[in-house]
Amino acid sequence: MSGENILVADDNAQVRSFLAEYLRGLGHRVQTAADGEQAAALIRADAEGFALVISDLQMPRLDGLGVLQVIKACAPDTEVVLLTGHPTLESAIGALREGAYDYLLKPVENLDELRSVVGRALKHRSLVLENRRLTEELRALNADLEGRIEQQTHQLREAYAQLQSLDEMKAQFVSVTSHELRTPLAQLFLATDLLADQIRQDSLIDAETYLEAITAPSQRLRRLIDNLFDFSLMERGEFELARGECHLAALACATAELWRERIEQKQMRLELSMPERDIVLYADASRLQNALDQLLDNAFKFTPEGGRILVGVHGPAHAPWDGAGQSVYAVIAVADSGVGIPAEKQPAIFQAFTQVDMSDRRRFGGLGMGLTIAARIVNAHGGRIMLKSEPGQGSVFAMWLPMRITPSPLARPG
């Protein structure tokens, strides 16, 4: 191996000169020192400067062992070859135990041996440095691999947790859907059986009552099926809007009136608050009516007897959320005096198949899709549903719709 920095330390000038010239002839860069102290000073001044030090074992001021100690303290990667005469051979062997690479007997007459020892020493140093570099690279790769494994393990755990959550949601959905479909079907079968008995007896005294008993669960079934169909379209990206002139006050009043009879039968009050001037939007009136209907169904379901439901329309108004800018909105709001929603449950209330209580023994029916559908319809119009609620204080759901609407694809609630 050529081109390395080598230090030759020997108190004999002829030996120093001979070794230096020979090593330079091999292509190495050589410095010399006349004693151990000078050698030690050169080493301390440039700890990484020498690949190899060839030092006489017996020198004034600081001997070869002292130079070896300095090297091991300041430049442990530097190889050391000691020069010794026969009387100090035992000392040279001891130096090998202290970390010297090899030794040569003086006088150095066998140049092939000198070249061989120097070559082996430099090769050994090169291998040590390469091994260290590879070891450090391996450690870095191991650390990176461990980090990746940890990250992938975390991702797998998250994916597994999501799969478990989806399995739980699927099981919950099947349970709730089965319950929601069985209940109106049982009512239908009972009412039709009673009506059939009346017909067989040639008596239609209670026929109107039984027909009414058939109508209510039929409407409930149709609502469940319509919601499932609309949600399926939304999930597939096939839910479209048919825009046109939409008169909000008329839409809100018409939708609320469809609920008036059921609300009053439950001993509740339905109140309306409409603007003096008509508000007209470019929107899908049928879809907005469906969204308002979902909010009214939610209010009706969660408001006890004797409560109140208010449907209001107002605008133009500036949106209360950050980033809305100066855009103006029209608002359709449904307020109730119902049970309210705990703050920790509100962020998830617009997620599909979600109610405050989704067990099949819950007090309130439904698949938990109504608010999801309403929110997606409003989002598709470029708007947003805002919620204010406290347990025991009722809830306010407000559909904020931009006054100027440009067509946009159906969006999920953010």
Description:
The chain is 51% helix and 18% strand. The protein has 414 residues and is of the alpha/beta class. It folds into three domains: 105 residues, Response regulator (Rossmann fold), CATH 3.40.50.2300; 58 residues; 159 residues, Heat Shock Protein 90 (2-Layer Sandwich), CATH 3.30.565. A five-stranded parallel β-sheet has the order 2-1-3-4-5, sandwiched between helices. It has a five-stranded mixed β-sheet with strand order 7-9-10-12-11. The longest helix has 90 residues. The two termini are 68 Å apart. 29% of the residues are buried.
Low-confidence stretches: 358-362, 405-414
Order of helices and strands, N to C?
Answer: EHEHEHEHEHHEHEEHEEHEE
Level-1 CATH class name of the largest domain: Alpha Beta
Total strands: the figure is: 12
N- and C-termini, Cα separation: 68 Å
CATH level 4 superfamily of the largest domain: Histidine kinase-like ATPase, C-terminal domain
SS summary, helix count: 9
CATH architecture of the largest domain: 2-Layer Sandwich
Shape: rod-shaped
Main sheet: strand order: 2-1-3-4-5
Number of domains: 3
Class computed from helices, strands and strand pairing: alpha/beta
Beta content comes to 15-25%
CATH topology type of the largest domain: Heat Shock Protein 90
Radius of gyration: 45 Å
Main pleated sheet: 5 strands, parallel
Q: What characteristics describe this protein?
A:
Heat Shock Protein 90, rod-shaped, 414 residues, 12 strands, Rossmann fold, five-stranded parallel β-sheet, disordered C terminus, alpha/beta
